[in-house]
Amino acid sequence: MFSLALRDDALLSLRPLEIWHAEEFAAHMDRAREHIRPWVGPAFVTDDLEGARGTLRRYAERQAADGARLYGIWLDGTLVGGVMFVDFNVALGSCEVGCWLEPAAEGLGLITEACHTLLDWAFTTRGMHRAEWHCRADNDRSAAVAVRLGMTLEGVRREFWPFGDTRHDKQIWAVLAPEWQAHRKLAGME
Ligand SMILES: CC(C)(COP(=O)(O)OP(=O)(O)OC[C@H]1O[C@@H](n2cnc3c(N)ncnc32)[C@H](O)[C@@H]1OP(=O)(O)O)[C@@H](O)C(=O)NCCC(=O)NCCS
User: Fold this and answer.
1) pLDDT given at position 10
2) Number of helices followed by number of strands (H, E) in the chain
3) Is the CB of 135 inside a 6 Å radius of any atom of ligand 1?
4) Among 142, 149, 169, which residue has the most ligand 1 atoms within 8 Å of its CB, making it the best to mutate?
5) What is the rounded CA–CA span in Å between residue 158 and residue 39?
6) Would you put residue 7 in left (φ > 0), alpha (ψ -120 to 50) or beta?
7) Architecture of domain 12-186 in this structure
8) Over the stretch 65-89, which tens digit does the pLDDT of each residue have?
9) Ligand 1 atom 23, closest CA
């Protein structure tokens, strides 16, 4: 469905992450688990093959209803992370994008580029009006992606996010369709 540009001769691809990838996804989760645990929803951090398959099944069922969707990012043939529509509400014209990476794939711009692809599809192909980005308020790398995507910080849900003994604030970022069209021009996408 999607493809990404080559990066320093590395083969990069963005493809739907589906149930038949369960073993690959579980192996990736072994590399990513402790890195992502503080920053993503607890249901996404699974411990074994059955857990990984459960995540993929949940997304498949929601995609079948034109809802949430999950995409993997493969770098030189290895699944290193992904991006998703956490929520995709056609009736409201609103969606939420999320992401994760294993540590070795950070700092390469993979997520910004993959999210560009998803947002372009949501706004241009699917006619969405609004896309959100939710992150823990102390997740600087995630907030930096929202900024690179031209999003605006709309507000903070105070002490919304329990993790360990602490309840963390959660930021809500968003970009609207006309803002996205302006952003993609600035980003040289047309
Ligand atoms: C959030 C997360 C996905 C961000 O990953 P990331 O690698 O920082 O984000 P990107 O893929 O957009 O890459 C940006 C980095 O690549 C660099 N980069 C290199 N080439 C680039 C390019 N062509 N375009 C953009 N950035 C590029 C940027 O300078 C930046 O590096 P820096 O932070 O050292 O300055 C990652 O930190 C992560 O998985 N964290 C744990 C899970 C998590 O927080 N998920 C999000 C929940 S809300």
Assistant:
1) 74
2) 5, 7
3) yes
4) 142
5) 16
6) beta
7) 3-Layer(aba) Sandwich (3.40)
8) 999 999 999 999 999 999 999 999 9
9) 109
Give 26-69 pLDDT, tens digit per residue.
Answer: 999 999 999 999 999 999 999 999 999 999 999 999 999 999 99
Q: What's the CA gap between 25 and 32, in Å, rounded?
A: 10
**DSSP classification of residue 108:** S
**Of 105, 123, 104, 127, which is closest to residue 115 (Cα–Cα)?**
123
Task: Phi first, then psi: give them for residue 11, nearest 5 degrees.
Answer: -85, 120
Q: What is the pTM of this model?
A: 0.95
Domain residue ranges of the chain, discontinuous segments joined by +: 12-186
Closest approach atom of ligand 1 to CA 112: 12
